């Protein structure tokens, strides 16, 4: 998989990809992540990528021309499955979206800034708009990093145990059940005896029940879905 991220702040984005699972995935050639500074595609001496709104109003708008040049340059080199715009009014990122995108080969992610991008960018270049929640950030970079993490960890070979991602919260529409590890007892707090019996069908049934109960208590909206 190849992910190209278009941003005005590449230095803000790079650190998550220089550590932990994301770095291991890149080092193992399981994914390529490339950062493209939008100011490199400007034509004036000031490297302007934004201007005031037509019709008046507060806030600056990212201009269509540098975005067009950057996306067009990338698309001339290869075909892309998705051109994603990170925006608060996009569809909310959920596990199913991450699952879908993890199967793609080439993705472009455009990070918004200021009041957003000229609508013509959204009309003519963007194939999918994604939000990480109902709130506004100063830019799309942190959202892009979240999206990349959610996608990359699903690529085969990235996680040490490939079945681990399949048991995460939301994969089956439920939250994950309680989990325990050593010691067996700590400060009088005991691990459920059921987990030590070796009866794996019974353990699995218990986990399913616990996942349902936890979802009902904390996220009943998932059961409605």
Total domains: 2
Parts with pLDDT < 50 across at least 5 consecutive residues: none
Which percent band covers the strand fraction?
A: 15-25%
Name the helicity range.
25-40%
Distance between the termini: 31 Å
What class, by secondary structure content? alpha/beta
CATH architecture of the largest domain: 3-Layer(aba) Sandwich
Secondary-structure map:
Layout: E1 2-7, H1 10-14, H2 20-27, E2 32-37, E3 50-52, E4 60-62, H3 64-77, E5 82-92, H4 95-101, E6 106-111, H5 119-124, E7 128-131, H6 141-152, E8 185-186, E9 189-190, H7 200-218, H8 220-224
Parallel strand pairs: 1-2, 1-6, 5-6, 5-7
Antiparallel strand pairs: 3-4, 8-9
């Amino acid at each position: 998989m190849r992910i190209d991220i278009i941003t005005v702040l590449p230095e803000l984005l790079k650190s998550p990809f220089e550590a932990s699972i994301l770095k291991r995935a890149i080092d193992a050639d399981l994914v390529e992540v490339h950062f493209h500074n939008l100011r490199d595609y400007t034509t004036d001496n000031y490297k302007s990528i934004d201007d005031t709104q037509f019709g008046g109003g507060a806030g600056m708008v990212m201009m269509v021309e540098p975005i067009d040049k950057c996306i067009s340059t990338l698309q001339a080199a290869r075909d892309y499955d998705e051109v994603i715009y990170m925006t608060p009014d996009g569809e909310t990122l959920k596990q199913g979206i991450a699952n879908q995108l993890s199967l793609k080969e080439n993705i472009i992610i455009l990070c918004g800034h200021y009041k957003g991008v000229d609508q013509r960018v959204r009309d003519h270049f963007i194939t999918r708009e994604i939000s990480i929640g109902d709130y506004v950030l100063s830019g799309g970079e942190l959202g892009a990093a979240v999206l990349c993490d959610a996608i990359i960890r699903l690529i085969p070979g990235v996680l040490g145990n490939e079945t681990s991602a399949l048991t995460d919260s939301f994969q089956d529409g439920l939250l994950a059940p309680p989990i325990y590890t050593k010691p067996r007892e700590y400060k009088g707090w005991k691990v459920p005896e059921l987990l030590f019996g070796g009866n794996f069908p019974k353990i699995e049934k218990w986990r399913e029940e616990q996942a349902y109960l936890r979802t009902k208590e904390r996220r009943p909206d998932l059961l409605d879905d």
